[in-house]
Amino acid sequence: MQFDDTQRTLSETLSLTIEGIQGDTVSLRDLMAAIGEQGLLLLCALATLPFLFPVSIPGVSTVFGAAIVLLAVAITLNRLPWLPEKILDRQMETAKLIPVMRKGVGIVSRMDKWVRPRGLHLTSGRMTVINGCVLVFAGLLLMAPFGLIPFSNTAPAVGILLLTIGMIQRDGVFVMLGYLGTVLTVVYFSILLYAAWWAGGALIG
Questions:
Q1: Is 165:42 a contact under the CB 8 Å cutoff?
Q2: Is the pLDDT reported for residue 97 higher than 90?
Q3: What sign does the dihedral 59-63-69-72 (CA atoms) show?
Q4: Dist CA 203 CA 76 (whole Å)
Q5: Which domain holds residue 165?
Q6: Based on the structure, what is the number of domains in the chain?
Q7: Fewer Cβ in 10 A, N or C end of the chain?
């Protein structure tokens, strides 16, 4: 699957997509229609924006996390994605979602000046499959049931965003940063699980 370099910066493209959203609620189907043919990776990047801040929006991590997983599978297998109707048509309140996404675009805009084509071997060929597999794994981390714990959604979202930026803009450095973010997320989750196990053992004892 080939992805064309965008003429605009990623933050500009994401901002234009968000500004085009209308109504009191929005679904993943609506977001896909707003993006059009600009790419599966762009939708993955858009789906990370609500999680760049430690703010909980009920139901969003499940919908967007599942979408990222299925889109990443499509990228890995080099085919169009299949998404279940339940995920496509789940309605989310724009009053809560859009402001957070706009703030996320602000973070992306700060990265724009650092992004440029480099390390191209990390963004093409067989690496597309490896990158897709990492995206699948990171999407599963985003869906992990730690929603009430600070940064449990933010950590995997940052890794996904960095990786998608690298793949969209052909920047191998950002791809590697995405890998690093995903590894640090695994470390963080491992600490959380160990702390929960230790606390449970202390209560039983």
A1: no
A2: no
A3: negative
A4: 44
A5: 10-204
A6: 1
A7: C
